[in-house]
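Sample entry (585 residues):
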Amino acid sequence: MNVRIGPGASEEEASAIATALAEYVGNEVQVYVGEADEPTATVSPPETTDEDDTPVEKGGLERSGAAEELGPTDREERLLEEIEEIYEGGHEKYKAQLPDEGKLFVRDRIDLWFDGDDSSFLFEDGRFAEFDADDRLPADALITGAATFDGRDLHFMANDYTVKRGSMAAKGVEKFLRMQQRALKTGQPVLYLMDSSGGRIDQQTGFFANREGIGKYYYNHSMLSGRVPQICVLYGPCIAGAAYTPVFADFTIMVEGMSAMAIASPRMVQMVTGEDISMQELGGATVHARESGSADLVAKDEEHARELVAQLITYLPDNADETPPMTETKPPALPPKGIDSIIPQEPNRGYDMVDLIDRIVDASSYFELRPEYGQEIITAYARIDGRPVGIVANQPAHRAGAIFPDAAEKAAEFIWKSDAFNIPLLYLCDTPGFMAGSQVEKDAILEKGKKMIYATSSATVPKQTVVVRKAYGAGIYAMGGPAYDPESVIGLPSGEIAIMGPEAAINAVYARKLSEVDDPDERAEMEAELRAEYREDIDIHRMASEVVIDEIVPPSSLREELAARFAFYEGIEKSLPSKKHGTIL
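Predicted structure, serialized as tokens:
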């Protein structure tokens, strides 16, 4: 290698340059000063020896064994030690408390979720957040990153309860917001593993009310809503601001005896109202699964929570631009030929709608959400011939399948979510209609019933409606009746469509006439005749004759009929009137 340097250089400077370059490049270097024809200094690279004391030329492409000799420097070793220290989380005394609470340390929780078949931890962001803090705040109590979960890429966050009880402060908030904003870009689902006591009160400056503070969480939740699935699993008592992430999520799973969420802690509630109440009584899994409806599912433990999410995500696409994943078809768990036998002849006699569902959906695919809330309506995902469908079904086994306010709201939200993520809807109608009475009026039956009808009206996915038995009153409207743009309305031979049931109708129209008949036997005979006449008018055959419905099908062929219709209408595109958005929430 020849090098020419400025004319003012001395022989010593030329030699020093040649020596440094020869050692660096591993080849002989000749240094020329100014315009000299002969080199002022010529230096060969130094020799080293291998493990057998054999001279080895150093540097250049001719070096052998050099790559094997290189390894982590002290600087890298220090970095690895720092990372290991961050992975240890908060103080050991807080980690020691976790087994007593039945919960995993957050890094072990991440291993549970993302270390296995078709699941892997990909990377973490903001690991060194608050690294220079005076107090020990590894990752500022919040871990964010990306992972593959059961073959699906997703974004995730997880609170570290050993660091300030998983509370939120400036750096953690920034990480959370970045994770959400990246999800908007990638169109990948978001998994929230929540275990947070809320905002860090003693460090609230700079993150509470700022444009890019905690408040932006819920703005981002709103922007993500309907764009990508947001799934939240609760692992502890989430208070105040922390409690809004679970309710903003599309699907929320709580862990029995461990999870809780509330707008204020029991201590704050006592200060404000004087009420003395425990955290579980205030906002535990039972409260939100049965009373508020904020919990979609309740898991027995951490492993069960993961299993539930793994099953749920199989029905969901990555985002609103995609269709739900198909699987191989499976025959139903129970034979379809038994459908008609389980539907009672008497319209007021109860039965379990799940017995019918098990005869039309693929075996092991039935996945019910909010099973303990608004039990008069079933909301569940399942597959028919391998195709995911969202089922909205009246449940005659509970309060005769009448639609109460809670059930209407539950159904509306389920319909809305299913439509957002392109999941076709199947309505199984057997209801006397919306419940009447002073209490349901106080509980906003009109407002919540309106939401259900609005959701059904606005859904643009393929919809199939089956009149299983009774479809009375506005129940047929909410349950996707002929006026609500379903692709098909199918009747079973047990079906009836009417403003009200025969008993109520005869009472309403002929009460005075019947009261004028003194003889009880004669009155009963007249009532039976009037009821029979009324039933002829509302019978499903009359509805088919007048083309109110599309078809009456033998119950044993219902699954086959639905599979063919969902497949045929799979690519249908529906549009809504041009507008900014509806006004019904």
